[in-house]
Amino acid sequence: MFVNLGLLFSLSLLLLLLLPFHPLSVSSQIYSNVSLGESLSAGGRISSWLSPSGEFAFGFQAINNPDDAFLLAIWYEKILEKTIVWYANGDKPAPRGSKVQLTINGGLELNNPQGEEIWRAQSILGVVTYAAMLDTGNFVLVDSNSVHIWESFKNPSDTILPTQILELGSMLSSRQPTNYSKGRFQLRLLTDGNLVMNTVALPTNYAYASYYVRNTSGSGYQIVFDESTATIHIQSRNGITSWDLTNGSIPSTKTHYHRATIDFNGVFTQYTRPKSSSNSSNGYESWSIIWSIPADICSSSSPNVGEGTCGYNGICKLVQNRPVCECPTQYKLIDPNNTLSGCKPDFIQQGCYENGSGESPEILYRMDELLNTDWPNSADYQTLTPYTEAECQYSCLYDCQCAMAAFNYEHCWKKGLPVRNGRQNSDNRAKVLLKVSAGNPPLVPVNPGSNPDGKEKDQGLFSVVAAVLLGSSIFFNLIFLAAIFMGVLMHYKKLKEDKVPKPTSFETNLHSFTYKDLEEATDGFKEELGRGAFGVVYKGVLGLDSKLVAVKKLDKVVQEGDKEFKTELRAIGQTHHKNLVKLVGFCEEGQHRLLVYEFMSNGSLASFLFGSPRPDWNQRTQIAFGIARGLMYLHEDCSIPIIHCDIKPQNILLDDCYTARISDFGLAKLLMNDQSRTRTAIRGTKGYVAPEWFRHMPITVKVDVYSFGVMLMEIICCRKSVELEMGDDERAILTDWADDCYREGRLDALVENDMEAMNDIGKLERLLKVAIWCIQEEPSLRPTLKKVVPMLEGIVEGSIPPHPYLFISAVGT
């Protein structure tokens, strides 16, 4: 026993003596340094270098499609969302297999798999010895004298961090809303010491006039992000603070992460987030806003700011100090994925120099009113005064160059397109009179040589016949008339044949069943699976292989059922996605209209979700992801975008593997390629219907986003959206209760002690944030499904959603 203790003591002493020379010694921090020749590969097993504490990482982040696009970036490693604070190649994403390497000649180089340069660290003053990712979030290249000869802090992208300093001439650039390429907004510390924010004329670097200026009277020298106070201030050369930017209560950097970013919408914002998730009161928080500038970017624009915040013809509204961009009536986004891209007319405009149709402008157009809206910094090509509102409308309506007119008291300002810096707020006293389509297409004049419908050819033929008859004998005329008569009969027979509708391609790809086939397959429509708005679904067996199917028998009146049948057949027949129920065939025989689907063995999501016991958390989240992907396919990837209009758990079916399949396209609304929204009667199911159905607003794909948000909350909580038996209990309306729980940090109450969900608190919070974004009453605030999917999967960070009813209540006041 004594021998063993002595041996143990000797070995321990030897280890203590050797410890300073160990390569992982804390004092040397060699493990955090990057040696010459080391590299990272995009999509490789090791794709990042960590700081000593593991707070920050430098390396590759997958963007957009994780399989083929990578960003060389720095991010918070210990945060679930991996919030990016610096990036190098936003305009040139790196393909899989690209490599970033530390070299003695080039310093830090990023090359694609073919060895072609994508990006390199510029202006390196000296010879690189090694690189390091520091705990401050700064990635540095170091020479033999331990001098930082290049650092990410001195080459910022859109964010600054505590301890970081912006020198004179430094700049932050926003990114685009949908990716990390260069955005339209900049924050600069000019050489005269003033802090300015401005837009640029992409793809050039031409800077428009500033929309925000902090004049320091020449005393500004640096923008300092003070780590000790977590404040940002402009500092003079003698070290004195000349202007504080930060205001409000500031949490300590010891307990909270801090960053300041010029967001894609042009607002410079300081964010904070708790470092620890162990405290129940802060454990569910995400990034929250401390302060931002400017206070109102919609009203901060000067006359020379290019396209403004929301792009040409766009309207800017302020919601929680954030700009929300919308298009005027009958206008649509130039880029549907970018709300800042500006708007263009969604109707044909009759220019001054086109061949006239002879139609009165009152037939072609109407003047719509836009209250509290104006484009004040757009040039008015004509001002009329004193004018009445009726005279102003009439003048613009009959002026082929006029797209809109602003009217205030006796003044009428006529404007042509494009207009810029549109804004909407209660302080705008002007009323915009917008010229839009009246929905009456102009008559197309028939030009010589044209033959749109055969009429001109018939008229020519008649002229020839008359000339021949007048100059010929009676016998010849009789023969000629007989020949002409036969020719006319054949001509009109051909026209009639051409007008007969031919089967569409999707119809030929589906199996056509007889009514008798389906009657036998269902054993006389014996076993009922469920009932929908337009019919009953029966279980059936087809073919020698006894394939199970679901047969939907439409039983409404012929006209309504036929309309439903053709809508659903047209919609589903052209779709193919693993998260959609597959249409096998159809029957269109006499009065009978039936649809044949593949059979879903595990029934509806409603039965799965609201039964007992509570379904598995991971299974529920995968179902939510699947539904989102299916909806994204309907909205984004179909040749004709489809609005489902009735998303609810009863219309989500589960196959053998519990994969979610969206069913029942009977209420689908199809949009042509040149349409972005439609107006129609209220459709859908109570509790899932978006507010715009009741407000006579345009109906877009955002109605499905709203319904998905309600259903996502049901999936999270395993309860129905409305529980009337709870009476006046705060939990009766799930959307209200879920929002309250999120803001009060009571997620445990929301999932009712679901330990699987609580153990995956990061995902739980992420899904709930997405759900709250989806149920925003203001449609423009809801994300598209193309944005929802990466937010759900954690690929894209979702910001803190506003209160769902904040915008509506603000408008009401």
Q: Termini distance?
A: 85 Å
Low-confidence stretches: 5-31, 278-284, 441-473, 495-508, 557-561, 669-682, 807-813
Average pLDDT metric: 79
Question: Helices and strands: which structural class?
Answer: alpha+beta
Oligomer: single chain
CATH superfamily of the largest domain: Transferase(Phosphotransferase) domain 1
CATH topology of the largest domain: Transferase(Phosphotransferase), domain 1
Shape summary:
globular
Radius of gyration equals 33 Å
Q: How many helices in DSSP terms?
A: 17
What percent of the residues sit in helical stretches (DSSP H or I)? 10-25%
Percent of residues in β-strands: 25-35%
For the record, the CATH architecture of the largest domain stands as: Orthogonal Bundle
Biggest sheet character: 6 strands, mixed
Q: Give the strand tally.
A: 45
Number of domains: 5
Order of strands across the widest beta sheet? 36-40-41-39-38-37
CATH class of the largest domain: Mainly Alpha
Walk me through this protein's architecture.
The protein is an alpha+beta fold. It folds into five domains: 22-155, Bulb-type lectin domain (Agglutinin, subunit A), CATH 2.90.10.10; 158-294, Orthogonal Prism (Agglutinin, subunit A), CATH 2.90.10.10; 315-437, Hepatocyte Growth Factor (3-Layer(bba) Sandwich); 521-599, Phosphorylase Kinase, domain 1; 605-813, Transferase(Phosphotransferase), domain 1 (Orthogonal Bundle). The protein is built from 17 helices and 45 strands. The strands form twelve sheets. Strands 36-40-41-39-38-37 form a six-stranded mixed β-sheet, with helices on both faces. A five-stranded antiparallel β-sheet has the order 29-35-32-33-31. Strands 1-10-11-12 form a four-stranded antiparallel β-sheet, with no helix packed on it. β15 (171-175) and β16 form a beta hairpin. Mean pLDDT is 79; it is low at 5-31, 278-284, 441-473, 495-508, 557-561, 669-682 and 807-813.
